Amino acid sequence: AQTVTQSQPEMSVQEAETVTLSCTYDTSESDYYLFWYKQPPSRQMILVIRQEAYKQQNATENRFSVNFQKAAKSFSLKISDSQLGDAAMYFCAYRSEGVGGSEKLVFGKGTKLTVNP
Amino acid sequence: DAGITQSPRHKVTETGTPVTLRCHQTENHRYMYWYRQDPGHGLRLIHYSYGVKDTDKGEVSDGYSVSRSKTEDFLLTLESATSSQTSVYFCAIRPWIAGSTQYFGPGTRLLVL
């Protein structure tokens, strides 16, 4: 079974600085997807960024980028120019390739990010 | 906005009572999921559905049942609520697009006394 580990329960960053959240996963599959979700105090789960395992190029979405190291099974999230609105829980998630609806998301336990003004 | 609503948004109930949570979607997505979120555990899958009347268990399905009689509705039932089922419950849908992820509803906070 796949597992996802976020080793940093909490992180903090100064506004306008850069922070990196870590995520490692364990799988025997070669095709899969990785995601970062953001959960602000409103509790809404918001997709931040996604990465296909077959793509070598790291995904980027505005101030958010990932460092995907397939061999090391590492998938870190970098937030540049941090803003107060970035404060939230961040969850790393894994999804296997496949069809039929059984491609469940496996989540890490989350990292709470605080942004200091 | 994936067009997902959950009801109720908050509920307080007593141990031993039945509880049903409803997830409603407006976009006819085939795949629907129920998760629970607890401190220190992230989100864990309870049950999922891959079509009307087609459901299967997730990793924490004990004490829960589901039903899906219409594409748009996915119901989660706690037959006899226990305090260990106090949690935040999320419904999610997944579009049938290769590589798509799941999109989540706003969540239901359930307190079992």
Brief description of this entry?
Chain A has 117 residues and is mainly β. Helices cover 0% and strands 52% of the residues of chain A.
Distance between the termini of chain A: 41 Å
The percentage helix of chain A is under 10%
Full CATH superfamily name of chain A? Immunoglobulins
The radius of gyration of chain B is 13 Å
Shape of chain A: globular
Quaternary structure of the protein: heterodimer
Q: Any overview of this molecule?
A:
The complex is a heterodimer of chains A (117) and B (113). Chain A has no helices and twelve strands. Chain A has 117 residues and is mostly beta strands. Chain A is globular, with a radius of gyration of 14 Å. Chain A starts with a strand and ends with a strand. By secondary structure, chain B is mainly beta. Chain B has a single domain, classed as Sandwich (Immunoglobulin-like), CATH 2.60.40.10. Chain B is built from no helices and eleven strands. In chain B, the strands form two sheets. In chain B, strands 2, 4, 5, 6, 9, 10 and 11 form a seven-stranded mixed beta sheet that branches. In chain B, strand 9 and strand 10 (103-104) form a beta hairpin. Classes of the chains: A mainly beta (117), B mainly beta (113). Chains A and B meet through strand 6 and strand 10 of A and strand 5, strand 9 and strand 10 of B.
